[in-house]
Specification:
Length: 341
């Protein structure tokens, strides 16, 4: 490692500065010329010292290996950017298609295999849940005192989605029912898919009110649906899932914003599947930000969310939804992702 600098006069020993080295390495990796880096860091270090760091870093085999990986990632990002630029040319670039009673073969060809989102109507019109699932009915069937797992205290944490495991609480279902009845929007209490394993037995009395979607889903142990139940105002911030999802709205309306999976490089990824973008900031970014699509789903609508597509969801009303991942076609994208950790 660097331990001396050749000055114009005589060599002088300098103490290695890891912070300066990291700043220089980061800028070199961004493709900046050493002279520009020296100018940017002029208030922190002598330009000659910055140049010495740059020369040593550029010649280090660790840095050269890292740059080989960075070059491969830049190539991949370029390909994805080409796809994003092409997508923007479509007159429907910011709109999610709506189809009625889409047959499974067409859905597979145009959306599942093509990785394009779609809102489908008419798939679940036969579900009793569409007419039965009121707060009173759910409370009567499940039981007011029946303990259920939910996320509670979400409004006390700005990073509530990242802390969702810490916000797990067991509450009587009556508390959920009261939230559904309330006219006040709230993001504080929400039964989500993440609570599914703990709630399967509690929700058994209403599980028969919905069912598989012929040609779309197949029965699989423990994967026959995940419930989302909460008042108006519940929010799921931008993230992406590791599977294809089919979100079926049973009660109320939800507004969904989505960003294509090829916008990965511009989505400010945090903790691998979350994003530091807020919806407001992304909307303000306009064409300078990632492509943003918007739709609204209501009772009976099924929204297909392709794997890796970022989505932000807001409940406009008291809401009940069922999420399926047990498609009739392969959907195990999570395993190779997790194996690469």
């Amino acid at each position: 490692m660097l331990n001396r600098m050749q000055g114009k006069a005589k060599p002088r020993v300098v103490e290695f500065d890891p912070v300066l080295a990291a700043l220089v390495a980061e800028r070199l990796a961004q493709g900046l010329h050493p002279s520009l880096i020296a100018l940017q860091l002029a208030q922190r270090a002598d330009p000659e010292l910055v140049g010495a760091y740059a020369r040593e870093i550029e010649g280090h085999p660790y840095f050269q290996g890292a740059m080989a990986v960075a070059d491969a990632l830049r190539k991949r990002d370029w390909i994805l950017d080409c796809q994003a630029a092409s997508w923007r040319r479509s007159p429907d670039a910011t709109r999610i298609a709506r189809r009625e009673s889409l047959d499974p073969e067409t859905f597979l060809r145009d959306h599942y295999a093509g990785q394009r989102p779609v809102v489908i109507g008419g798939l679940v019109d036969h579900w009793p849940a569409l007419s039965l699932w009121t707060a009173d009915y759910l409370e009567q069937r499940i039981g007011r005192e029946t303990p259920v797992e939910a996320q509670k205290g979400r409004e006390s944490r700005k990073d509530f989605e990242l802390r969702k495991l810490e916000l797990r609480r067991t509450v009587p279902f009556g508390e959920i029912a009261d939230a559904l009845r309330s006219a006040e929007p709230s993001n504080d209490l929400y039964v989500t898919a993440n609570n599914g394993a703990g709630n399967r037995a509690a929700f058994e009395p209403v599980w028969g009110d919905f069912g598989p979607i012929e040609g779309y889903t197949v029965p699989r142990d423990g994967q026959d649906g995940y419930l989302w139940i909460g008042p108006a105002g519940t929010i799921t911030p931008f993230h992406h899932d590791l599977t294809n999802n089919l979100l079926v709205q049973v009660r109320g309306r939800k507004r969904v914003h989505m960003v294509p999976n090829w916008e990965e490089a511009r989505m400010k990824t945090a903790r691998r599947i979350f994003s530091d973008w807020t919806l407001e900031a992304l909307q303000e970014a306009g064409d300078k930000g990632p492509v943003l699509l918007e739709t609204e789903i209501g009772p009976g609508d099924a929204l297909f969310i392709p794997v890796g597509w970022w989505h932000h969801v807001v409940s406009l009303d008291a809401s009940c939804s069922v999420l399926f991942t047990n498609f009739a076609w392969p959907n195990d994208f999570a395993t190779p992702f997790m194996e690469g950790r």
